Amino acid sequence: MKKEGKRADTQRPYKLAHQVLCITGFNFRLQSLIGYVELVIYPLRQDLRRIKINCKQGRIYRVCFQDQWEAPFLYNDPTLEICQGDVKQRNLDFFESCHASATAAVDPDCANGEVTIRVPFEAFPLVSELKPLRVSIEFSLETPLGGIKFVVPETDSNQSMADRGAHLFTYGCEDSSRLWFPCIDSYSEPCTWKLEFTVDVNMTAVSCGDLVETVYTPDMKKKTFHYFLSTPTAAPNIALAVGPFEILMDPNMHEVTHFCLPHLMPILKHSTAYLHEAFEFYEELMSIRYPYSCYKQVFVDQAYAEASPYATLTIFSTNLLHSARIIDQTPVSRTLMAGAIAQQFFGCFIAMESWYDEWLPKGIAGYLTSLYIKKAFGNNEYRHYIAKELKCVQEYEQQVAGIVLDPSAQENSTAKLYFPVNHPHTVSPRYQAMFERKAMLVIRMLEIRIGRELLLQTLNKLLSLAIQASQQKFQPNFNIWGNMLLSMTSFLKIKSTVTGKDINVFLDQWVRQSGCARFFGNFVFNRKRNVVELELKQDMNAKGAMKYVGPLTMTIQELDGSFNHTFKIEENKTKFEITCHSKSRRNKKKKIPLMTGEEVDMDLSAMDADSPVLWLRVDADMTILRQVTWEQPDFMWQYQLRYERDVVAQLEAIEALEKFPTPATRMSLTDTIENEQCFYRVRMEAAMCLARVANAMVANWAGPPAMMTIFRKMFGSHTCPSIVKQNNFSNFQHYYLQKTIPVAMSNLRNVHNICPPDVIRFLLDLFKYNDNRKNKYSDNYYRATLVDAIANTVTPAVTTFTGPGLGPTASSLTPDMKLVLEEITRFINLEKLLPCYRYTVTVSCLRAIRKLQRMGHIPSDAALFRSYSQFGNFVDVRLAAFEALVDYTKVEADPDELNNLLDTVEDDLDPYIKHGVLKLLLTNPPFTKQDNKSSMGTEMLVERLWRMMNSGTSNDARLRCGIADLYFTFYGRTRPSCLPIPESVIVLNLKEKRTMVHPSLSLSEIGQEEETIHEEEDSILWTPIKTDFDAPSFPASSSSSTVESKKRKADSPLIFDDIKKESSAEPNIKAEVEENPCKLKIRPSPEAVLPETSPTTKPNISVLAPPSMGSNDSPIGLSEDSNSQPPFETKIDVTESSAPLEEKPSSGAAPQEVPQESTEADPHKAHKAKKKKKKNKHKHKHKHKHEKGEKGERPVDKADKSVDRKDKTSEDVLQKSDSAHHLDMYSRSPDLDEPSSPEFEVM
Question: Is residue 367 one of the residues assigned to a domain?
Fold first, then answer.
C-alpha cells in the first residue's frame, strides 16, 4: 500500500468550508423524505472542471451553482454490483479484488464519488479566481434500504404516527452518511454545518450541534428545527433522529439532554442518573473541558448497534434502559454510555485523517473507557476486563487472522486476509471488532512504556490544539483545521514534544505487524547455588504468533517477599537465572510478605523443604500482547490461588488447577468459593472449575455432590437447609454466586456420565421454593440461570426404537426428564402472562428445549423456534430462536431451513437481527470448507450467497462483509468444489505468453496445492496447442453511465407531490462492452476434452413475506412488569416422532479427472511447437496493434486529458502488479477490468 493515500488534502482539488442540510418533509407512511443540501466549496486549482460527491440510493432532481446556473451530473456506483457482467468466477479472492476496486472508485479520499458534477461554463471565472462555489442539490429518498431506518409499528390505522410511536433514525458503519444525503463522505473533510428539519408538530427532530430555534408553520401543523454546528465536523459524524420523544434535561448537567420513546421516562431517569460522573471523570483525567457545547442521547427501537456515537449526539438502543430493580444490565449500560462520551473526544471531535490512522482514535477512546471502568467498578473489574480483551484478541489471531493496526507500512502485511483492510466497507465485522480491542490494548501498552501522566499530557495537548483550530475561521490555502485530524505523524510529533521519547521500535513491533507473543516456560530450583533456573521458549511457527524481542518481567514470590526481575528476551536465548533473596524454609514460623505489602500466615507443609519459592508469574501486569503456558507444581498453583491478591493471577491458577484433580485442589477451590474477601468473578470461576475437578475425581469422590453443602450453608433456610431462603439480592457478590453455583452443579456427572439424581432434585427444589416477594430487585436473571442449570443436566437419551421413522415419545422419557420438561414448559408459558425484563426466562427456555431435542428426549422440530423468530417478538427472544434454528439446520442438515435463515438475512426489517443471524451462522456453521461432501453445499446455495454479496446488500456494508465471512467459512477463498468444472481448464494468455489454469478453478480441483504451484507448473501443463478460436470476452466492469440529468422546475416547491414513482431522472446505468486487448485462445487436445456440463441454473428461492403480527417489540414491553402477551401459546409435543430427513443429492457435478499429457513424453513435438510459437511472435504483436487501432475512442476535451492519462497510467501499473502476483492465475480473470470511476461519456 502506498503512503500517498495518507493525505486526502493533496488529492482533492477543492476544500469544503460549510454545508447546509435541509429536510423539508418526512413521510412515515411511504418511508420517504425530500430536501436539499448546499455545499460551499473553495477551488484549489484554476482548472477545476468537475466536482465529485457521495450519494447513494437517492434521487437527485437538480444541481445548481450560485442559485442560478444549473449543472449536468453523472451518477455511477460500481458498489451496486461488485463483479459486473456475466462472470462465472465464484472464488472469494476475485470478489474481494473487485470489491476493493469498486470501493476505491467512489472513495472520497481518492477524490472519487458516486455523483460527478460538471462545473457550468458560467462558473469558470469564479474558479479561475479561486472564489467559493455554492453547489445546491435537491434530492429525495424513497423506501431506503440502508442508512436511515423508519420504525412504524403496525397498529390501528386511525392513529397518528406520533400516537403509534413511529420514529426514524440514521445508522450505518463509518462513511455511511452518503446513504441519506449528498455529501463528501470522508473524515478528512470537516466543515461547519447548518441543519434544518421540518417535522409534524407532535414530532421532535434531534441532530448534531446547538438547537438555535424552532419555527412553526402558519397552519401550526409542522415545525422546523434549526441546528448549527460551529465546530468543524466530517459528514460521517452527522446524524438525525425524529420521533415523538419524551425529553429529559439532565439534572446534574444542563448541557446534556436525554430523549426516549413514550412511556419510558421512569427507566430513562434511572438509566442516565450516573452520566454526569463520566463527564466529570474524563474532564478531570485529561484536564480539559468537554469540547462541545451540548450532548444528546436518543434511545430508539430496532437500533443498528447498541451505541452509535456522532458529533454531540449518540443513538442508543432502547434495550439498554432499565429500572432500579435490574442488576445485571446496569454495568453494561453504564459502560456503553461512558464509551460513547469517550468517543466524543476522540472519534467525533478529533477524527482520523485516513483509514490507516483509525487505530488511534479507536484505541484512545477504548483506553479512556477502560479507565472509567476502573474508576466506576474497581481495579479488580478493570484487571479482569483487560485480561478478557487480551484473550479475545489472542484467540482471534490464532484461529482466524492476524490484526495489523497500520497496514500502510508493509504491502504484504495483510496478504493472507481474504478481505481488504484499507476501508471500512470491505473489512470483516469480526475483524473490525477485534481491531478495536487490540487498538485499546496497544494504547494501554504505550501508557506502560511512557507512563500514564505523560500519555494523558499528550492527549491534553492534542485536544488543546484541536479546540484552538476549531475556533479559527476557514482559510482555503491553509490547513487551519488540520489539528482536528489525528494521524500517526501528528500523534508522534505531539508525543515527542511532550515526552521526548522515541517509540518507533514499539510501533514497528505492535502496530505495523500482526500477532501475539507465545511463551512456554518452566523452572528448576538449584539448591546449591540458591538460584531459579528458568527456561522460556517462544512458539513462532504457530498461526497468529510473532517473534518478540524486548524486556519481559518475571515475578517471583519467595518466603521473604515478592520480587520482580526483568529479562531481555533475545533471538536465541531461552535460559535465564534468578538469584533468590530467601534461604530455604527454616523451622521457625513467620509471616510471608506479599506484593501488596500485606503479611499473611501460610501453611508451608505442602511446599518443597529445600526451596524458598512459592510461585512464579510471567508478565504479571500484561505489559505486552502475549499468551503464556507456564508449568509449575500443583501446590504452587494452590498457593497462588489462596494468597496472590491479583485477580488475573487467581484466574490463571484456577485454569491450571483443572489439570490437577486432587483432594488438595478440591479443598483450595472450595476455600476460594467460601472466601468473602475474594473477588466475585474469581469465586464464580472457582465454582465452575470445581465441577470439572469433581467429574475427574468421580470414582474417589466422598460425600454429597460438590458445592451442595456450600450453597445450603450460604442460601439455605436456617431451620431447613434443604429449602432455599427468600431472595435477598442486596449483596451483589452473593447474588452472582447464587446464580453461578446451580449452573456449576448442573455440570456434575457420575460414573455413568449422567447428572446425579440428587442434583436434579436439588435444582427442581430451587424452582419450587423460589420466593421473590420481599426482594427489592428483580429475579428474572436468577430464574433464567435456573433454567440454564436444569438444561445442563440433560444428557443423551438411551432409547431403543423398534420401527423405522419412530422417534422419542412421552412414554420413553425418564421420570427426571419428565419433571425437567414440565418445569421448562411451565416457565415459558408463565412468561406469556407475566413477562420479565428482556424476556430472559423465555430465552433460556428456548435454549433448553433445543437441548432436549438435540439429546433425543423430544422430537426435533423447528416449528416452535420458527414462531418465536417472527418479527414482532423481542429481539433477544428472536435471536435465541434463531440460535436454535441454526443448530437444528446443522444437526438435521436441512437446506430448506438454511434458506429460511438466509431469507431473514435478506428481508428482515430489523438490521440488528440481520447481522445477528449472520453471526450465529458464523459461530455454528451448518458446514465448513472441510465438509466437501455436505448435502447443503449445493450450487444453488453458492449462487445465492454470491448474489447477496455481489448486489443484494449494496446499502449495508456490514452485512455485505458478513456474508463474505460466511462464504469464506463455507467454501474458503477458492472456487467451491460443488460447482461443475468449466470446459476450459487450461488457457493460453497471449499477452504474457504462457499457459495457465483457468482463473475460476480452485487448486484442489486439479489436485495441486496453492503454495507449490510454481514448482509443479511444468508437470501440469498440457502439450503446446494451436490457438484458433477466441475465448469469450466479458463486458468491462468499469461501465460508463449514459445518464443525462433531468431538471425540475426551479419554482416548484420541495413537497411530496413532486415525488413520483417513476421518475425520468432516475439514472439508467448501461454496461459498455469493450474489446479486450488481451485475448485468450485455446484448442484442447482430443484426449483432454471434458464432457459438457449443464449450464449453471439460477436458484429458485421463494422469499417469504414477513407475517403481519402485532408488534410486541414495543418499548413499553421492556420493563420487567410489562403485561404484553405474545399472540400464540406454546405447546411442546412429545408424542409424535420426527420423520428421518431424506438426504438430497448434491446438485454440483462430480469433479472430473483431467487427462494430462507430459511434455517429456514427446520432446520433439514440444520443440516444434515452441519453434512455431517463436516464429509467429511478430504476427501476434501486429495483430494486437491492429486491434487496438480499430477500437473506438471517445472524444476527450482538453480539461479531461490529464485526468484520463492519469487514470490510464494507474490502471496499467495496477494490471502489471496484478499479473506479477503468483495467485492471480487462480483468483482473477484476465478478461475483466476492475471497476473504476467513469469519466463523462454523455452529458
Answer: yes
Rg (C-alpha) for the chain, rounded Å, is 33
CA distance 380 to 733: 13
C-alpha cell at position 591: 509471616
pLDDT tens string 893-914: 999 999 999 999 999 999 999 9
Q: Among 765, 782, 799, where does a domain finish?
A: 782
What pLDDT digit, counting tens, does each position of 1157-1168 carry? 444 444 444 444
| CATH number for the domain harbouring residue 434 | 1.10.390.10
Alpha helix positions (H), 911-1037: 911-923, 939-947, 957-971, 1017-1020
β partners of residue 41: 16, 133
* Structural domain includes residue 314: yes
Q: Which of 838, 834, 811 is nearest to 1134 (CA)?
A: 811
Do residues 103 and 423 touch, judged by C-beta distance below 8 A?
A: yes
Assigned C-alpha cell, 519: 511463551
Q: Beta strands 222-233 and 191-200: pairing type?
A: antiparallel
Q: What's the distance, Cα to Cα, between the start and end of the chain in Å?
A: 35
Residue among 290, 438, 410, 436 at smallest CA distance from 350: 290
Q: Name the helix (H) or strand (E) containing 454.
A: helix 452-470
pLDDT tens digits along 122-137? 999 999 999 999 999 9
Alpha-carbon distance of 489 to 360, in angstroms, equals: 11
Distances (CA, A) of 580 to 562, 575, 598: 10, 16, 20
- In this structure, what are the phi and psi dihedrals at residue 326, rounded to the nearest 5 degrees? -100, 130
Alpha-carbon separation of residue 332 from 326, 377, 440, 806 (angstroms): 11, 11, 18, 47
For residue 767, CA distances in Å to 506, 710, 1102 come to 55, 18, 44
Grid cell for residue 831 = 412468561
- Contact yes or no for 1225/1010 (Cβ under 8 A): no
Mean pLDDT lowest for which of 402-416, 707-721, 942-956, 1066-1080?
1066-1080
| Diameter of the chain measured on Cα atoms | 105
Ranked by mean pLDDT, the top range of 7-11, 729-733, 1031-1035 is 729-733
Q: In terms of residue numbers, what domain contains 343?
A: 264-294+303-504
| Boundary (domain end) residue, out of 486, 504, 522 | 504
Q: Which amino acid is at 862?
A: A
Contacts of 178 by beta carbon, 8 Å cutoff, 6+ apart: 54, 55, 56, 114, 147, 185, 235
Distances (CA, A) of 1152 to 634, 970, 1088, 1156: 57, 22, 11, 12
Tell me if 68 is assigned to some domain.
no
Residue 989 has pLDDT above 80, yes or no: no
CA distance 693 to 666: 7
- In angstroms, the CA 986 to CA 1009 distance is 16
Number of domains in the chain: 2
d(CA 358, CA 484): 14
Residue at 1195: amino acid letter: P
Q: From 362, 241, 229, select the one nearest 294 (Cα to Cα).
A: 229
Q: State how far the Cα of 612 lies from the Cα of 527, in Å rounded to an integer.
A: 10
C-alpha grid cell, residue 958: 456490514
396, with CB counted inside 10 A (0-12, 13-18, 19+), is buried
Dihedrals φ, ψ of 1142, to 5°?
-80, 130
Is 776 within the bounds of a domain? yes
Contact 738, 782 (CB under 8 A): yes
CB 161 within 8 A of CB 37: no
Full DSSP string of 1056-1116? GGG--SS-TTS----PPP---SS-BB----GGGPPPP-PPPPPP--PPPPPP-------GG
Task: State the pLDDT at residue 983.
Answer: 64
